[in-house]
Amino acid sequence: MASATLCAFLAGCAIHQTVRPVDVALEREICVIENPSVKAGFIEAYKRSLATKGYAVRQLPASAPITACATTTTYTASWRWDLALYMAYAEIRVFTAGKQVGEAKYDSLRGGGNMNKFIDADRKVDELVNQLFPGGARS
Question: Considering 20, 30, 82, 93, which has the largest number of Cβ atoms within 10 A of its Cβ?
Answer without folding.
Answer: 30
